Amino acid sequence: MTTITVPLYRAAHGRTGDKGNRSNISVIAWHAELWPLLVEQVTEAAVARQFVHRRPERVARYLLPQLQAMNFVLDAVLDGGVNDALNLDSHGKALSFLLLELPIEVPRTLLHRLAGPPIER
Question: A Pfam family this protein belongs to (predicted)?
Answer without folding.
Answer: AtuA_ferredoxin
